[in-house]
Design goal:
- By secondary structure, the protein is mainly alpha-helical.
- It is 74% helix and 3% strand.
- A two-stranded antiparallel ribbon has the order 1-2.
- Strand 1 and strand 2 form a beta hairpin.
- Helix 6 runs antiparallel to helix 7.
- The radius of gyration is 19 Å and the shape is globular.
- The two termini are 36 Å apart.
Amino acid sequence: MKERIITALIAIAVFVPVVWYGGLLFTIAIYALASIGLFELIRMKGLSFVSLPTMLTGLLLWLILIPSHVDLFGSLEITKVEITFIIVLLLLSYTVLSKNTFTFDDASFLLTATIYVAMGFYYMNETRSSGLEYIFYAFFIIWATDTGAYFIGKAIGKRKLWPEISPNKTVEGSVGGILCAVVIALIYNAFVPISDHIFFLIAVTVAVSAFGQIGDLVESAFKRHYGVKDSGKILPGHGGILDRFDSLLFVLPLLHFLHFI
């Protein structure tokens, strides 16, 4: 527990100022975190770090992460979607060139893993560009959900939420986490107005809190499937980057899809 607390304090002391400062520094941090997250998944799968497929997907990750305000592709007359399709064709071609030592399953895994990581971190950058109030709203909702789910689940939790994936989570804890998130959202909105429509704010918060929990369960399912305890070891006492950002990778895209930001 001591190691976990020390790591959390150091991470907060480093990450929060970077978030606050924003701009290029934050974009560089996003690229670093996303790259580590992708390689954590690649390691889970047991694929080689140094190979043509992983280099292609690493390139795809970096291209998807390019902020929307950067017009890199305009002069090239090509879109991110077209580049993605090209990389799909190259990966499928490599299954033949490698004489099926690199399989269709491997190609599918790399593409899904890349889009999963890139989507979440891309929208983290876009959320920060929209304003500090939105990204801190997302942080507070996730923290409130996790804290509420833990303490309420420990106090009154009876029914298991998804024992095959995460045996310690309970239905009562999940609902408690959502309720705590709503309370924190209303308090946050009172001091940092982000919505004039309270019922819309509550609805979005409920959806975000629930989706954040799904993101956490998805990461737990990955780890259980591949037989690992943590996605990585870069954060002592916490695990890897994906262990800490799994909920946000689901929440931040959702906030944009709901046109909350």
